[in-house]
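Quick one, C-alpha coordinates below. Sequence please?
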Protein backbone atom coordinates (compact mmCIF):
# COMPACT_ATOMS: atom_id res chain seq x y z
CA UNK A 1 0.00 0.00 0.00
CA UNK A 2 1.37 3.38 -1.03
CA UNK A 3 1.15 6.32 1.38
CA UNK A 4 1.67 9.93 0.37
CA UNK A 5 2.15 12.65 2.96
CA UNK A 6 1.99 16.28 1.85
CA UNK A 7 2.94 19.39 3.78
CA UNK A 8 0.57 22.15 2.60
CA UNK A 9 1.92 25.19 0.79
CA UNK A 10 1.25 27.95 3.30
CA UNK A 11 3.51 30.89 4.21
CA UNK A 12 2.78 33.66 6.70
CA UNK A 13 5.83 35.91 6.60
CA UNK A 14 6.66 34.95 10.17
CA UNK A 15 8.96 32.19 11.38
CA UNK A 16 9.98 31.08 7.89
CA UNK A 17 12.08 34.23 7.41
CA UNK A 18 14.78 32.50 9.50
CA UNK A 19 14.99 29.55 7.15
CA UNK A 20 13.26 26.56 5.67
CA UNK A 21 11.97 24.36 8.46
CA UNK A 22 11.67 20.55 8.15
CA UNK A 23 8.11 19.36 8.86
CA UNK A 24 8.85 17.09 11.82
CA UNK A 25 5.31 15.67 11.85
CA UNK A 26 5.98 13.47 8.85
CA UNK A 27 9.08 11.95 10.45
CA UNK A 28 7.24 11.19 13.70
CA UNK A 29 4.39 9.54 11.78
CA UNK A 30 6.54 7.65 9.30
CA UNK A 31 8.64 6.00 12.02
CA UNK A 32 5.90 3.89 13.62
CA UNK A 33 4.20 3.29 10.27
CA UNK A 34 7.37 1.78 8.80
CA UNK A 35 7.85 -0.38 11.87
CA UNK A 36 4.27 -1.60 11.37
CA UNK A 37 5.14 -2.72 7.83
CA UNK A 38 4.16 0.33 5.77
CA UNK A 39 7.38 0.76 3.84
CA UNK A 40 6.08 2.61 0.75
CA UNK A 41 5.88 6.17 2.09
CA UNK A 42 6.53 9.29 0.01
CA UNK A 43 6.65 12.86 1.31
CA UNK A 44 6.09 16.05 -0.69
CA UNK A 45 6.89 19.35 0.99
CA UNK A 46 4.66 21.62 -1.10
CA UNK A 47 5.51 24.59 1.12
CA UNK A 48 9.29 24.44 0.81
CA UNK A 49 9.12 23.55 -2.88
CA UNK A 50 6.48 26.20 -3.52
CA UNK A 51 4.28 23.80 -5.48
CA UNK A 52 1.14 24.98 -7.24
CA UNK A 53 -2.01 22.86 -7.21
CA UNK A 54 -1.27 21.80 -10.77
CA UNK A 55 2.26 20.69 -9.92
CA UNK A 56 1.03 18.82 -6.86
CA UNK A 57 -1.63 17.09 -8.95
CA UNK A 58 1.02 15.93 -11.42
CA UNK A 59 3.10 14.43 -8.63
CA UNK A 60 0.06 12.70 -7.14
CA UNK A 61 -0.98 11.29 -10.50
CA UNK A 62 2.48 9.83 -11.02
CA UNK A 63 2.53 8.22 -7.56
CA UNK A 64 -1.07 6.89 -7.48
CA UNK A 65 -1.16 6.58 -3.67
CA UNK A 66 -3.72 4.58 -1.70
CA UNK A 67 -3.69 7.14 1.14
CA UNK A 68 -3.05 10.88 1.01
CA UNK A 69 -2.41 12.52 4.37
CA UNK A 70 -1.69 16.06 5.44
CA UNK A 71 -1.76 18.21 8.57
CA UNK A 72 -2.72 21.74 9.54
CA UNK A 73 -2.31 24.33 12.19
CA UNK A 74 -5.04 26.95 12.15
CA UNK A 75 -3.58 29.33 9.51
CA UNK A 76 -2.76 26.48 7.13
CA UNK A 77 -6.14 24.74 7.38
CA UNK A 78 -7.45 25.95 4.02
CA UNK A 79 -4.21 25.01 2.29
CA UNK A 80 -4.44 21.53 3.85
CA UNK A 81 -8.07 21.21 2.77
CA UNK A 82 -6.97 22.18 -0.73
CA UNK A 83 -4.33 19.41 -0.75
CA UNK A 84 -7.04 16.84 -0.13
CA UNK A 85 -9.34 18.47 -2.66
CA UNK A 86 -6.59 18.10 -5.27
CA UNK A 87 -6.26 14.46 -4.19
CA UNK A 88 -10.03 13.93 -4.57
CA UNK A 89 -9.87 15.03 -8.21
CA UNK A 90 -6.51 13.44 -9.05
CA UNK A 91 -6.50 10.11 -7.17
CA UNK A 92 -10.16 9.69 -6.21
CA UNK A 93 -9.73 6.14 -4.91
CA UNK A 94 -7.19 7.23 -2.28
CA UNK A 95 -8.39 7.65 1.31
CA UNK A 96 -7.88 11.30 2.28
CA UNK A 97 -6.70 11.92 5.86
CA UNK A 98 -6.21 15.15 7.80
CA UNK A 99 -4.50 15.59 11.16
CA UNK A 100 -3.21 18.40 13.33
CA UNK A 101 -4.34 20.72 16.07
CA UNK A 102 -6.98 22.70 14.18
CA UNK A 103 -8.85 19.66 12.89
CA UNK A 104 -8.60 18.00 16.30
CA UNK A 105 -10.74 20.67 17.93
CA UNK A 106 -12.67 22.08 14.96
CA UNK A 107 -13.44 18.79 13.20
CA UNK A 108 -17.16 19.51 12.80
CA UNK A 109 -16.54 22.77 10.96
CA UNK A 110 -13.70 21.29 8.89
CA UNK A 111 -15.77 18.31 7.73
CA UNK A 112 -18.69 20.60 6.92
CA UNK A 113 -16.61 22.95 4.76
CA UNK A 114 -14.40 20.27 3.15
CA UNK A 115 -16.49 17.28 2.01
CA UNK A 116 -13.50 15.81 0.18
CA UNK A 117 -11.89 14.89 3.54
CA UNK A 118 -12.59 11.25 4.41
CA UNK A 119 -11.31 11.14 7.97
CA UNK A 120 -9.64 13.32 10.60
CA UNK A 121 -7.07 11.99 13.06
CA UNK A 122 -7.51 13.79 16.38
CA UNK A 123 -4.61 14.30 18.77
CA UNK A 124 -1.24 12.52 18.69
CA UNK A 125 -1.21 10.71 15.40
CA UNK A 126 1.37 7.95 15.71
CA UNK A 127 -0.68 5.13 17.22
CA UNK A 128 -3.97 6.23 15.64
CA UNK A 129 -2.40 6.34 12.17
CA UNK A 130 -1.04 2.81 12.49
CA UNK A 131 -4.48 1.49 13.50
CA UNK A 132 -6.32 3.49 10.83
CA UNK A 133 -3.92 2.65 8.00
CA UNK A 134 -3.97 -1.03 9.00
CA UNK A 135 -7.77 -1.02 8.75
CA UNK A 136 -7.53 0.56 5.27
CA UNK A 137 -4.89 -1.94 4.17
CA UNK A 138 -6.98 -4.88 5.38
CA UNK A 139 -10.16 -3.60 3.73
CA UNK A 140 -11.86 -2.84 7.04
CA UNK A 141 -12.37 0.85 6.30
CA UNK A 142 -14.85 2.46 6.71
CA UNK A 143 -16.96 -0.31 8.27
CA UNK A 144 -14.67 -0.56 11.33
CA UNK A 145 -14.37 3.21 11.78
CA UNK A 146 -16.35 3.34 15.02
CA UNK A 147 -13.95 0.84 16.62
CA UNK A 148 -10.92 3.10 16.10
CA UNK A 149 -10.36 5.72 18.76
CA UNK A 150 -9.31 9.26 17.88
CA UNK A 151 -11.18 9.74 14.59
CA UNK A 152 -13.79 12.10 13.16
CA UNK A 153 -15.62 11.40 9.91
CA UNK A 154 -19.02 11.50 8.24
CA UNK A 155 -21.67 8.83 8.08
CA UNK A 156 -24.05 10.25 5.52
CA UNK A 157 -24.89 13.72 6.77
CA UNK A 158 -23.87 12.97 10.35
CA UNK A 159 -20.45 13.82 11.76
CA UNK A 160 -19.10 11.08 14.00
CA UNK A 161 -16.30 11.54 16.53
CA UNK A 162 -15.04 8.37 18.15
CA UNK A 163 -13.75 8.31 21.72
CA UNK A 164 -10.45 10.15 22.16
CA UNK A 165 -7.46 7.83 21.97
CA UNK A 166 -5.13 7.57 24.94
CA UNK A 167 -2.02 9.71 24.85
CA UNK A 168 1.21 7.84 24.17
CA UNK A 169 2.49 6.49 27.47
CA UNK A 170 5.59 4.63 26.28
CA UNK A 171 7.75 7.56 25.23
CA UNK A 172 10.51 5.15 24.19
CA UNK A 173 8.22 4.06 21.33
CA UNK A 174 8.59 7.50 19.71
CA UNK A 175 11.22 6.85 17.06
CA UNK A 176 10.90 9.17 14.06
CA UNK A 177 12.07 8.31 10.57
CA UNK A 178 14.14 11.34 9.60
CA UNK A 179 15.16 9.66 6.32
CA UNK A 180 11.77 10.51 4.82
CA UNK A 181 12.85 14.17 4.46
CA UNK A 182 15.00 15.66 1.71
CA UNK A 183 17.50 17.42 3.94
CA UNK A 184 19.04 19.49 1.17
CA UNK A 185 15.91 21.66 1.38
CA UNK A 186 16.22 22.75 5.01
CA UNK A 187 18.57 25.55 6.07
CA UNK A 188 18.84 27.81 9.11
CA UNK A 189 19.82 31.11 7.53
CA UNK A 190 21.69 32.75 10.47
CA UNK A 191 24.24 29.92 10.53
CA UNK A 192 23.92 28.66 6.96
CA UNK A 193 23.49 25.09 8.15
CA UNK A 194 20.84 22.38 8.02
CA UNK A 195 18.23 22.57 10.74
CA UNK A 196 15.96 20.09 12.56
CA UNK A 197 13.14 20.27 15.11
CA UNK A 198 13.30 17.22 17.41
CA UNK A 199 11.04 16.68 20.39
CA UNK A 200 12.18 16.15 24.02
CA UNK A 201 8.78 16.25 25.72
CA UNK A 202 5.14 16.60 24.85
CA UNK A 203 2.62 18.84 26.52
CA UNK A 204 2.99 21.53 29.13
CA UNK A 205 1.90 21.68 32.80
CA UNK A 206 1.04 25.37 32.48
CA UNK A 207 -2.30 26.59 31.15
CA UNK A 208 -1.62 29.97 29.53
CA UNK A 209 -4.97 31.23 28.31
CA UNK A 210 -3.76 32.09 24.78
CA UNK A 211 -1.93 28.79 24.18
CA UNK A 212 -3.29 25.58 22.70
CA UNK A 213 -0.39 23.17 23.14
CA UNK A 214 -1.31 22.05 26.64
CA UNK A 215 -4.83 21.34 25.38
CA UNK A 216 -3.70 19.38 22.33
CA UNK A 217 -1.19 17.10 24.09
CA UNK A 218 -3.45 16.78 27.18
CA UNK A 219 -0.76 15.62 29.60
CA UNK A 220 2.93 16.33 30.08
CA UNK A 221 5.35 13.50 29.24
CA UNK A 222 9.13 13.45 28.86
CA UNK A 223 11.29 11.26 26.64
CA UNK A 224 14.55 9.65 27.73
CA UNK A 225 17.26 12.24 26.98
CA UNK A 226 19.50 9.51 25.56
CA UNK A 227 16.88 8.64 22.94
CA UNK A 228 16.62 12.27 21.89
CA UNK A 229 20.40 12.71 21.72
CA UNK A 230 20.55 9.52 19.63
CA UNK A 231 18.29 11.31 17.15
CA UNK A 232 20.38 14.46 17.20
CA UNK A 233 23.59 12.51 16.68
CA UNK A 234 22.01 10.72 13.72
CA UNK A 235 20.66 14.00 12.33
CA UNK A 236 24.16 15.47 12.40
CA UNK A 237 26.14 12.48 11.16
CA UNK A 238 23.67 11.23 8.56
CA UNK A 239 21.93 14.41 7.40
CA UNK A 240 24.42 17.19 8.17
CA UNK A 241 22.23 19.02 10.69
CA UNK A 242 24.21 21.75 12.44
CA UNK A 243 21.41 23.50 14.33
CA UNK A 244 18.22 22.32 16.00
CA UNK A 245 15.36 23.85 17.93
CA UNK A 246 13.57 21.73 20.49
CA UNK A 247 9.89 21.65 19.55
CA UNK A 248 8.81 21.63 23.21
CA UNK A 249 6.80 24.53 24.55
CA UNK A 250 9.17 24.69 27.51
CA UNK A 251 11.89 22.01 27.60
CA UNK A 252 13.33 23.34 30.86
CA UNK A 253 10.21 22.53 32.89
CA UNK A 254 11.67 19.22 34.01
CA UNK A 255 14.99 20.51 35.31
CA UNK A 256 16.45 17.07 36.03
CA UNK A 257 15.68 15.77 32.53
CA UNK A 258 16.99 18.92 30.85
CA UNK A 259 20.28 18.66 32.76
CA UNK A 260 20.61 15.01 31.69
CA UNK A 261 19.91 16.04 28.10
CA UNK A 262 22.65 18.69 28.21
CA UNK A 263 25.12 16.32 29.86
CA UNK A 264 24.43 13.66 27.24
CA UNK A 265 25.21 16.16 24.48
CA UNK A 266 28.45 17.13 26.21
CA UNK A 267 29.50 13.50 26.81
CA UNK A 268 29.17 12.77 23.09
CA UNK A 269 31.09 15.87 22.02
CA UNK A 270 28.11 17.23 20.09
CA UNK A 271 28.29 20.90 21.21
CA UNK A 272 31.33 21.39 18.96
CA UNK A 273 29.27 20.18 16.00
CA UNK A 274 25.68 21.19 16.66
CA UNK A 275 24.22 24.35 18.21
CA UNK A 276 20.62 24.66 19.35
CA UNK A 277 17.84 26.85 20.66
CA UNK A 278 14.74 26.63 22.85
CA UNK A 279 11.66 28.52 23.99
CA UNK A 280 11.27 28.87 27.73
CA UNK A 281 9.89 30.97 30.58
CA UNK A 282 11.48 33.73 32.59
CA UNK A 283 10.87 31.80 35.81
CA UNK A 284 13.02 28.89 34.59
CA UNK A 285 15.91 31.23 33.82
CA UNK A 286 15.74 32.54 37.39
CA UNK A 287 15.59 29.02 38.75
CA UNK A 288 18.56 27.85 36.70
CA UNK A 289 20.76 30.95 36.81
CA UNK A 290 23.66 28.94 38.24
CA UNK A 291 23.34 26.43 35.39
CA UNK A 292 23.22 28.79 32.42
CA UNK A 293 26.95 28.49 31.67
CA UNK A 294 26.53 24.70 31.75
CA UNK A 295 23.66 24.94 29.25
CA UNK A 296 25.89 27.06 27.02
CA UNK A 297 28.63 24.42 27.17
CA UNK A 298 26.03 21.91 25.97
CA UNK A 299 25.58 23.99 22.79
CA UNK A 300 22.53 26.05 23.76
CA UNK A 301 23.02 29.37 21.98
CA UNK A 302 19.53 30.82 21.47
CA UNK A 303 16.71 31.23 24.01
CA UNK A 304 13.37 32.73 23.06
CA UNK A 305 11.76 34.15 26.18
CA UNK A 306 8.01 34.43 26.51
CA UNK A 307 7.99 37.88 28.05
CA UNK A 308 4.66 38.25 26.21
CA UNK A 309 3.72 41.85 27.01
CA UNK A 310 5.11 44.97 28.61
CA UNK A 311 2.19 45.84 30.87
CA UNK A 312 1.67 43.73 33.96
CA UNK A 313 -2.05 43.87 33.25
CA UNK A 314 -1.50 41.93 30.03
CA UNK A 315 0.69 39.35 31.71
CA UNK A 316 -2.07 38.69 34.22
CA UNK A 317 -4.63 38.42 31.46
CA UNK A 318 -2.57 35.72 29.76
CA UNK A 319 -2.22 33.75 33.02
CA UNK A 320 1.55 34.20 32.86
CA UNK A 321 3.16 33.63 36.24
CA UNK A 322 5.89 36.24 35.74
CA UNK A 323 6.45 39.88 36.66
CA UNK A 324 7.52 42.57 34.23
CA UNK A 325 10.58 43.49 36.28
CA UNK A 326 11.82 39.88 36.12
CA UNK A 327 12.18 39.99 32.34
CA UNK A 328 15.11 42.40 32.29
CA UNK A 329 17.07 40.36 34.82
CA UNK A 330 16.43 37.10 32.96
CA UNK A 331 17.74 38.66 29.77
CA UNK A 332 20.82 39.95 31.60
CA UNK A 333 21.51 36.49 33.03
CA UNK A 334 21.30 34.84 29.61
CA UNK A 335 23.55 37.38 27.95
CA UNK A 336 26.07 37.02 30.78
CA UNK A 337 26.17 33.30 29.97
CA UNK A 338 26.83 34.13 26.29
CA UNK A 339 23.42 32.82 25.23
CA UNK A 340 21.57 34.84 22.61
CA UNK A 341 18.20 35.94 23.91
CA UNK A 342 15.08 36.80 21.94
CA UNK A 343 12.27 38.65 23.70
CA UNK A 344 8.76 37.83 22.51
CA UNK A 345 6.01 40.43 22.86
CA UNK A 346 2.34 39.90 22.16
CA UNK A 347 0.55 42.96 20.83
CA UNK A 348 -2.79 43.74 19.27
CA UNK A 349 -5.35 43.11 21.97
CA UNK A 350 -8.43 45.27 22.29
CA UNK A 351 -6.70 47.67 24.70
CA UNK A 352 -3.64 48.29 22.50
CA UNK A 353 -2.80 51.95 21.82
CA UNK A 354 0.11 53.81 20.20
CA UNK A 355 1.32 54.47 23.73
CA UNK A 356 1.38 50.79 24.74
CA UNK A 357 3.23 49.90 21.54
CA UNK A 358 5.78 52.57 22.35
CA UNK A 359 6.03 51.13 25.84
CA UNK A 360 6.96 47.72 24.48
CA UNK A 361 9.69 49.29 22.36
CA UNK A 362 11.12 51.25 25.27
CA UNK A 363 11.14 48.14 27.43
CA UNK A 364 12.75 46.07 24.67
CA UNK A 365 15.50 48.63 24.29
CA UNK A 366 15.94 48.97 28.04
CA UNK A 367 16.12 45.20 28.53
CA UNK A 368 18.58 44.84 25.61
CA UNK A 369 17.78 41.36 24.30
CA UNK A 370 19.82 40.37 21.26
CA UNK A 371 16.61 39.98 19.25
CA UNK A 372 13.03 41.11 19.69
CA UNK A 373 9.83 39.92 18.12
CA UNK A 374 6.38 41.54 18.21
CA UNK A 375 3.68 38.98 17.48
CA UNK A 376 0.06 39.90 16.82
CA UNK A 377 -2.34 38.34 19.27
CA UNK A 378 -4.02 35.47 17.46
CA UNK A 379 -7.22 34.14 19.07
CA UNK A 380 -6.99 30.40 18.44
CA UNK A 381 -10.66 29.32 18.43
CA UNK A 382 -10.04 26.49 20.91
CA UNK A 383 -8.27 28.42 23.69
CA UNK A 384 -9.69 29.81 26.95
CA UNK A 385 -8.86 33.39 25.98
CA UNK A 386 -10.92 33.03 22.80
CA UNK A 387 -13.99 32.28 24.87
CA UNK A 388 -13.48 35.58 26.66
CA UNK A 389 -12.88 37.62 23.51
CA UNK A 390 -14.89 35.85 20.83
CA UNK A 391 -17.63 38.48 20.74
CA UNK A 392 -14.96 40.97 19.67
CA UNK A 393 -13.54 38.75 16.90
CA UNK A 394 -14.57 40.15 13.52
CA UNK A 395 -12.22 38.20 11.25
CA UNK A 396 -13.09 34.56 10.63
CA UNK A 397 -10.58 33.92 7.84
CA UNK A 398 -8.30 31.37 9.52
CA UNK A 399 -5.58 31.77 6.89
CA UNK A 400 -4.80 35.11 8.55
CA UNK A 401 -4.50 33.65 12.06
CA UNK A 402 -0.72 33.66 11.75
CA UNK A 403 0.76 36.01 14.39
CA UNK A 404 1.60 38.63 11.76
CA UNK A 405 -1.86 39.78 10.68
CA UNK A 406 -3.90 41.92 13.11
CA UNK A 407 -6.95 39.75 13.72
CA UNK A 408 -8.20 41.80 16.66
CA UNK A 409 -8.92 45.47 16.06
CA UNK A 410 -7.90 47.58 19.06
CA UNK A 411 -10.55 50.04 20.14
CA UNK A 412 -8.17 52.98 19.72
CA UNK A 413 -6.44 51.95 16.49
CA UNK A 414 -7.11 50.74 12.97
CA UNK A 415 -5.44 47.51 11.93
CA UNK A 416 -3.15 49.32 9.51
CA UNK A 417 -2.05 51.67 12.27
CA UNK A 418 -1.33 48.68 14.51
CA UNK A 419 0.81 47.09 11.80
CA UNK A 420 2.61 50.39 11.25
CA UNK A 421 3.31 50.69 14.99
CA UNK A 422 4.79 47.19 15.06
CA UNK A 423 6.93 47.90 11.98
CA UNK A 424 8.14 51.11 13.61
CA UNK A 425 9.31 49.07 16.60
CA UNK A 426 11.13 46.62 14.34
CA UNK A 427 12.77 49.39 12.31
CA UNK A 428 14.07 51.23 15.35
CA UNK A 429 15.22 48.17 17.24
CA UNK A 430 17.12 46.48 14.43
CA UNK A 431 18.50 49.68 12.91
CA UNK A 432 20.07 50.59 16.24
CA UNK A 433 21.31 47.04 16.72
CA UNK A 434 22.79 46.98 13.19
CA UNK A 435 24.57 50.31 13.62
CA UNK A 436 25.75 50.16 17.21
CA UNK A 437 25.67 46.57 18.43
CA UNK A 438 25.89 43.61 16.05
CA UNK A 439 29.10 44.54 14.18
CA UNK A 440 30.93 45.72 17.30
CA UNK A 441 29.81 43.51 20.20
CA UNK A 442 31.84 40.36 20.54
CA UNK A 443 33.84 38.38 18.01
CA UNK A 444 33.76 34.99 16.36
CA UNK A 445 30.58 33.00 16.78
CA UNK A 446 28.55 35.73 18.54
CA UNK A 447 29.22 38.30 15.83
CA UNK A 448 28.61 35.81 13.03
CA UNK A 449 25.33 34.63 14.52
CA UNK A 450 23.91 38.10 15.09
CA UNK A 451 24.92 39.29 11.63
CA UNK A 452 23.31 36.13 10.25
CA UNK A 453 20.07 36.99 12.04
CA UNK A 454 20.26 40.53 10.68
CA UNK A 455 20.81 39.16 7.18
CA UNK A 456 17.69 36.98 7.52
CA UNK A 457 15.63 40.05 8.49
CA UNK A 458 17.04 42.19 5.66
CA UNK A 459 16.54 39.40 3.14
CA UNK A 460 12.88 38.99 4.11
CA UNK A 461 12.41 42.76 4.10
CA UNK A 462 13.91 43.12 0.63
CA UNK A 463 11.66 40.35 -0.69
CA UNK A 464 8.65 41.95 1.07
CA UNK A 465 7.91 38.58 2.67
CA UNK A 466 8.42 39.73 6.28
CA UNK A 467 5.02 40.04 7.95
CA UNK A 468 3.47 39.46 4.53
CA UNK A 469 4.07 43.16 3.83
CA UNK A 470 4.13 42.73 0.07
CA UNK A 471 0.66 41.21 -0.03
CA UNK A 472 -0.72 43.75 2.44
CA UNK A 473 0.66 46.69 0.46
CA UNK A 474 2.53 48.22 3.37
CA UNK A 475 5.45 50.45 2.36
CA UNK A 476 5.86 52.62 5.44
CA UNK A 477 3.92 55.05 7.63
CA UNK A 478 2.50 56.81 4.58
CA UNK A 479 0.58 53.64 3.67
CA UNK A 480 -0.70 52.81 7.19
CA UNK A 481 -4.26 53.82 6.30
CA UNK A 482 -4.17 52.06 2.92
CA UNK A 483 -3.11 48.60 4.05
CA UNK A 484 -5.34 45.82 2.73
CA UNK A 485 -5.20 42.49 4.54
CA UNK A 486 -7.48 40.72 2.03
CA UNK A 487 -9.63 38.95 4.61
CA UNK A 488 -11.98 36.40 3.09
CA UNK A 489 -15.25 37.82 4.38
CA UNK A 490 -17.20 34.79 3.18
CA UNK A 491 -15.77 32.75 6.03
CA UNK A 492 -18.23 32.16 8.84
CA UNK A 493 -17.61 32.57 12.54
CA UNK A 494 -15.78 29.68 14.14
CA UNK A 495 -18.01 26.89 15.26
CA UNK A 496 -17.78 25.93 18.91
CA UNK A 497 -14.64 23.91 19.57
CA UNK A 498 -14.97 20.28 20.55
CA UNK A 499 -15.97 19.72 24.15
CA UNK A 500 -15.06 16.03 24.38
CA UNK A 501 -11.36 16.75 24.87
CA UNK A 502 -10.23 16.38 28.48
CA UNK A 503 -6.70 17.34 29.53
CA UNK A 504 -4.88 16.60 32.75
CA UNK A 505 -5.31 20.27 33.60
CA UNK A 506 -9.07 19.90 33.11
CA UNK A 507 -9.10 16.86 35.39
CA UNK A 508 -7.09 18.71 38.02
CA UNK A 509 -9.42 21.72 37.84
CA UNK A 510 -12.46 19.48 38.13
CA UNK A 511 -10.92 17.67 41.11
CA UNK A 512 -10.16 21.01 42.74
CA UNK A 513 -13.74 22.16 42.18
CA UNK A 514 -15.01 18.95 43.76
CA UNK A 515 -12.70 19.39 46.76
CA UNK A 516 -13.81 22.97 47.23
CA UNK A 517 -17.47 21.97 46.91
CA UNK A 518 -17.02 19.24 49.55
CA UNK A 519 -15.22 21.67 51.87
CA UNK A 520 -17.97 24.25 51.40
CA UNK A 521 -20.61 21.60 52.05
CA UNK A 522 -18.86 20.38 55.21
CA UNK A 523 -18.44 23.97 56.41
CA UNK A 524 -22.14 24.64 55.85
CA UNK A 525 -23.12 21.48 57.68
CA UNK A 526 -20.81 22.35 60.57
CA UNK A 527 -22.34 25.80 60.80
CA UNK A 528 -25.83 24.29 60.69
CA UNK A 529 -24.98 21.81 63.50
CA UNK A 530 -23.51 24.63 65.57
CA UNK A 531 -26.66 26.68 65.19
CA UNK A 532 -28.79 23.65 66.15
CA UNK A 533 -26.74 23.09 69.30
CA UNK A 534 -27.11 26.76 70.29
CA UNK A 535 -30.89 26.56 69.83
CA UNK A 536 -30.99 23.36 71.92
CA UNK A 537 -29.08 25.03 74.75
CA UNK A 538 -31.47 27.97 74.66
CA UNK A 539 -34.46 25.63 74.81
CA UNK A 540 -33.06 23.77 77.84
CA UNK A 541 -32.46 26.95 79.74
Amino acid sequence: MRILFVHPNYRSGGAEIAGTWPPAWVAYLSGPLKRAGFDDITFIDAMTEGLSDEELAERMAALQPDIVGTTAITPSIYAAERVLEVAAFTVPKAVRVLGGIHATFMYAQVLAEAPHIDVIVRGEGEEIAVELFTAIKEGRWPQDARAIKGLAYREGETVIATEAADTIKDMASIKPDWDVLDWSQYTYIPLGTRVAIPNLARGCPFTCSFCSQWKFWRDYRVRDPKDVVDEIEELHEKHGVGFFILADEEPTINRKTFIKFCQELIDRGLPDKVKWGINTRVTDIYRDKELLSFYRRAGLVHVSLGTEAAAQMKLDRFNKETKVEENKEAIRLLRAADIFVEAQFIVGLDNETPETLEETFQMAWDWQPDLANWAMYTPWPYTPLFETLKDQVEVHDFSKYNFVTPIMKPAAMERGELLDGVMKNYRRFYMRKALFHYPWRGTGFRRRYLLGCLYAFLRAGFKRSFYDLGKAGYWGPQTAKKVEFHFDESRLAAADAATDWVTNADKAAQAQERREAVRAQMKARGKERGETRRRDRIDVD
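The longest helix spans residues 504-540. The mean pLDDT is 89.
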